[in-house]
Each structure stands twice: as structure tokens, then as C-alpha cells.
UniProtKB/TrEMBL annotation:
Taxonomy of the source species: Eukaryota, Fungi, Fungi incertae sedis, Zoopagomycota, Kickxellomycotina
Family (UniProt): Belongs to the DHNA family.
Catalytic activity: 7,8-dihydroneopterin = 6-hydroxymethyl-7,8-dihydropterin + glycolaldehyde
GO terms under cellular component: cytoplasm
Protein name, per record: dihydroneopterin aldolase
The encoding gene: FOL1_2
Pfam family, one: FolB
Protein source organism: Coemansia thaxteri
Length: 112
């Protein structure tokens, strides 16, 4: 059984999409990540360095989003975010990413 480190609805801005009108300027995206890890050692020793630091995970996700403007699909974007989160300390066992693109569809709150 693993524990989870979670951040929900991290807002980032990036250029993402297949259509030319989507690629003209940065758009907001919302990222939720559940990073599976063990927090037993960190809790016992009171050392965040023995777990996954959610602040560092958020910074890596934001950095990835802001520097990867060649992606076209939300799926490729989510895959990149997952790899960024997995590489935080090497202590992540798995990661689940939900990436949402607000206002991507006319009659929906978001696409994701």
C-alpha cells in the first residue's frame, strides 16, 4: 500500500492544441497530480527529503508547462507532467495526472 502526495488544480499557462487559433497565445491549464510514494520514513524522521516534496513537484510541473510549447495534445502534455513529477526525488512509485483545459469546448466547462 502506498501513500499519496497530492496537488489539485495547479494553474499553468502554455501553448497547446492542434488548431492554429489555439497556438497563437498561451492558454490556462489545470493540473491535478496524485504521486504515490511512502511517507513512513519521512513521518518517522520528520524529514520531507525522505518523501516527495509537493512544492518541488509543482515547480517541475510549472516549468515543464512553460517550456514545452511544441506539444499539440493534452495527452502528451499529461505524459510530460507525469515524468516531471516522477523525477522529483526518485521516491515516487507511480503518478496519476489529470490535465484539464478550461474553455476548450463551447458548451463544456473544460476538456481533459
Amino acid at each position: 500500500m502506498s501513500d499519496k502526495i497530492i496537488f489539485r488544480d495547479l494553474q499553468v499557462r502554455t501553448v497547446l492544441g492542434n488548431d492554429s487559433w489555439e497556438r497563437k497565445k498561451q492558454q490556462p491549464l489545470l493540473i491535478t497530480a496524485e504521486i504515490h510514494t511512502s511517507i513512513a520514513s519521512a513521518g518517522k524522521n520528520d524529514k520531507v527529503t525522505e518523501s516527495v516534496h509537493y512544492g518541488i513537484a509543482c515547480k517541475r510541473a510549472t516549468s515543464f508547462a512553460e517550456s514545452n510549447h511544441k506539444l499539440h495534445s493534452l495527452e502528451a502534455f499529461a505524459e510530460g507532467i507525469a515524468k516531471a513529477c516522477l523525477g522529483v526525488t526518485g521516491r515516487a512509485l507511480a503518478v496519476h495526472i489529470v490535465a484539464r483545459k478550461p474553455r476548450a469546448l463551447l458548451h463544456a466547462e473544460y476538456a481533459g
